Amino acid sequence: MRYLVSLIAILMPLCVAAQVWEDRQVFGTSKTPPLRILSSTDTSFFAPIIQDFIATTPNSSVEYLVTGTVDLDQVFRNARDQFDIVISSAMDLQLKLVNDGLAAAVVNVDHPEWAQWHNRLFAFTSEPAAIVLNRQAFDDLAVPSSRQDLIQLMRDHPKRFQGRVGTYDVRQSGLGYLFATQDARATETYWRLTEVMGRVGAKLYCCSGQMIDDLRSGDLIMAYNVLGSYAQAQAETSDDLKVILPSEFPTTMMRTTLVSVAAPDPQRADSFVRHLLKLQSTGDPRIFLLPPLAVSQNYQTQRTISLDPALMTYLDQMKREAFIREWEDAIVQVD
């Protein structure tokens, strides 16, 4: 048994090193090891924040590693002493990390109570899930403003939408699973919409970036529950996309960060989190490119997902399996 434990301890760093990252970049130069940030957020959004941190922290460097929300959770759990900071859009998985004792406290932070959990998990954005359209494909169609409008459009024009609708594969995406479970809790319309998307042969994706790429190429004409911040960033530089927040309510998640309880450099990790939270509060759009926290939690218009234990309900294995089965029955339809 001792041999097995020792072998695992030796091999674990090698497994982390062998991880295939979506992106990996090092910022700054330093004689000391870099601050290691494990994140699900595209580097383009975080590069200005990291560069601003380095500019105010002499002799610092940062290694920024990007992977999907589910992989991120598993990688961190298996090697929490290899990373200083974790940043993810999957609020439920992040809260579970805190609940399992894997996050260090960052105390005396001037931050809204509703946007943190036990001084260990801190939300720093408000980002809605959006309906995103290919503009050209909707030249002769009414633009939907709600989930019910979208259902009616697909029912009225099944051939137009056949094989050209996209959404998250909730079996693979932590954020997709979070959005789906929160939608299902909020409205029965979600299941009707999922069933109609299944009838027109919806394509399933791991991440928003791939859906946006296929919308721009014309392979998709509509995608549901796309991360609004990513879609809006693309729409601002192109006329290909139209971003719609459902009029009933957009399901809005808060991107969160934590410091690893086993961080190699806990002092600098603490400093980075404080710097990040200060930047979001000042809202300088040249540095903080993501949507900052909403001024308040207006659940009626935003339906912001709360940082509370209810988030972990659907992480229970039996509940997750039941939800996935119901989702598969609705969206994976065989003729």
What this model shows, in words?
The protein is an alpha/beta fold and 335 residues long. The chain folds into two domains: 2-125 and 254-302, Periplasmic binding protein-like II (D-Maltodextrin-Binding Protein, domain 2), CATH 3.40.190; 128-252 and 316-331, 3-Layer(aba) Sandwich (D-Maltodextrin-Binding Protein, domain 2). 41% of the residues lie in helices and 17% in strands. The protein is built from twelve helices and 14 strands. The chain has helices at residues 2-17, 43-56, 69-78, 91-99, 147-156, 158-161, 174-186, 189-199, 208-217, 228-235, 266-282, 317-331; strands at residues 23-27, 35-39, 62-66, 85-88, 103-104, 116-117, 121-123, 127-134, 165-168, 203-205, 222-227, 241-244, 252-253, 256-260. The strands form two sheets. Strands 1, 2, 3, 4, 5, 6, 7 and 14 form an eight-stranded mixed sheet that branches. Strands 8, 9, 10, 11, 12 and 13 form a six-stranded mixed sheet that branches. A hairpin with a 3-residue loop joins strand 6 (116-117) and strand 7 (121-123). The longest helix is centred in the C-terminal third of the chain and has 17 residues, at 266-282.
